[in-house]
Design a protein that fits this description.
This protein is α/β, with parallel strands linked by helices. It has four helices and six strands; from the N terminus they run βαβαββαβαβ. Strands 2-1-3-5-4-6 form a six-stranded mixed sheet, with helices on both faces. The chain is globular. The relative contact order is 0.26.
Amino acid sequence: MKVMVAGIGNIFLGDDGFGVEVVRRLADEPMPDGVQVADYGTSGLHLAHDLLDGYDATILVDAAGMGSPPGTVYLVELGPSQRPSGERVPDAHGMQPDAVLDLVAMLGGDPGRVLLVGCEPATIDHHVGLSRAVEGAVEQALQLVRTLVREQMSGKTTTQKTEA
């Protein structure tokens, strides 16, 4: 099994740095063989290129505004793009997960099962550092990512989409 854990976000935009902070902490922990943990920041092209190596599962960690209170952690499974093929050319210089995944597909790659561990941001503006609510959600996200990695490496997929 091969699993990619990708931290996404811009540390200079407050809570948008959530995914980067989660993988920064996760990178200090031992991981099973076959698990790659990386900070992709805002480099969608780099992530798309790495996903061309083929993964059984990709876990994206990012700030995700879904309308809940700040600090709410989400688990969402991302399916194949619903847009008709050729409707637009993906912009891989941004980090919108759908654009990166569209580019991977366009290049003939397969990211495997794609899961998003997201956190509702409190603020996305020009400053470094997470808000208190989002900082408090980092440990919860770490636990969720660890569980997902264990499940993916064991071949079990029992974790349901949740709002934690």
